[in-house]
Amino acid sequence: MRNLLFTISFCGTAYHGWQVQNNAVTVQQTVQDAIEKIIRKRENIVGCSRTDAGVHANMYCFNMKTESLIPCEKLVTAINAMLPDDISVLDCVEKEESFHARYDCKRKEYKYLILNSKINNPFLTDRALLYPYPLDESFLDEQAKQFIGRYDYSAFCNSGSSVEDTVRNVFSADVGREGDTVTFTVSADGFLYNMVRIMVGTLLDISSGKIPENTIKDIILSKNRDMAGCTAPACGLYLNKVEY
Amino acid sequence: MRNLLFTISFCGTAYHGWQVQNNAVTVQQTVQDAIEKIIRKRENIVGCSRTDAGVHANMYCFNMKTESLIPCEKLVTAINAMLPDDISVLDCVEKEESFHARYDCKRKEYKYLILNSKINNPFLTDRALLYPYPLDESFLDEQAKQFIGRYDYSAFCNSGSSVEDTVRNVFSADVGREGDTVTFTVSADGFLYNMVRIMVGTLLDISSGKIPENTIKDIILSKNRDMAGCTAPACGLYLNKVEY
Prior knowledge:
Low-confidence stretches of chain A: none
Number of domains of chain A: 2
CATH architecture of the largest domain in chain A: 2-Layer Sandwich
Order of helices and strands of chain A: EHEEHEEEHEEEHHE
Oligomer: homodimer
Number of helices of chain A: 5
CATH superfamily of the largest domain in chain A: Pseudouridine synthase I, catalytic domain, C-terminal subdomain
Mean pLDDT of chain A: 96
Radius of gyration of chain A: 19 Å
Strand content of chain A: 25-35%
Structural class of chain A: alpha+beta
CATH topology of the largest domain in chain A: Alpha-Beta Plaits
CATH class of the largest domain in chain A: Alpha Beta
Distance between the termini of chain A: 21 Å
Shape of chain A: globular
């Protein structure tokens, strides 16, 4: 039995997230359908994380155990030919039998794109949050640095998750600007349900004065979801890197 | 009677080009519909050029004569509220009564995006040409320089145009690369029907060896469409700048 690690990229606008659901098109189901057409067998695939509806991935990983003997490179080409244009397989490598795309992940990086403009950019529709009020990226970068460290991140987790261990190690958190696009980049050993979107919502609430500055550490330590900011929309969020 | 110059941006994927047509959704019609909802009158608008189905615009200009007294800034906000997410009004200014968006245009710049990769980028679907064979951008930049000058560009014009004067002055032509995206940028005092797409097709045919190198000047002077290369797909083309 081979254990294959696939790296894919997808524009999530048309999908109800990664995970297979009844009555909704998901990335996992679409990928499984494409693979089935090639290897003539329905295989279950294991993703590196759930993603919300409308969230994108520059890089996403999953593994699949299979009896198929088709070489990795041929699988990439063949599966891409079966996938719609908003999902691409970038890579496929063979891993040891015990490898698990979720449990073995050491580090993930997310990006959140904010179009800081009064006027929408037609090319960023569904791909960034349109935010028309001033944003000071240096100030927000300073604030974001307070996310770094190993903490119980319950205050940055929406209900709906069954996770018991809510401690996560945030390695880096940065805010930068290129033209009118402001980007929040965060890496950690793992993320709770909606964690990045609540981080972004909190930074925006600090920017607007709704939440006082220099309170992120207090919010984390409170472990109280009500202390943190709103949940920023899914459309600006990109899973950007997955490391094993 | 006021004469207003509007600058817009649009993602052209969903449209059959600029120009109003029967039985097809176009950018002009969509914009006229939005304006009608605001000024309560159907006004004809005059675009700076026709564009093909699927072509995009980072910048596109049109003018409109109107009795409406709504200030320019308010028009921008109000019309944007009526437009779909793939078209945005960026600016509106008042011009002299004789101003004409097409005839008064001094210079236009187009960009053509090529994703030079074997694997599609889901975020560039319908926004770039996927080209899987090697491209040497320095070599193509040298070749592209031969487009510069004032010539009869009939060899780079598909049939279907009623234009009689086929002389155009090409000011600049450059090929560059950023990662796996190769961009052809060209500016001129005007362009013939499909001219940029045939320029790109010719460069790609030179790259693949189908057309010999250093023959662009000969092709121009031949005034023979059959000498030039294929017409590259519309999806990679962006009107990028319009100058008056």
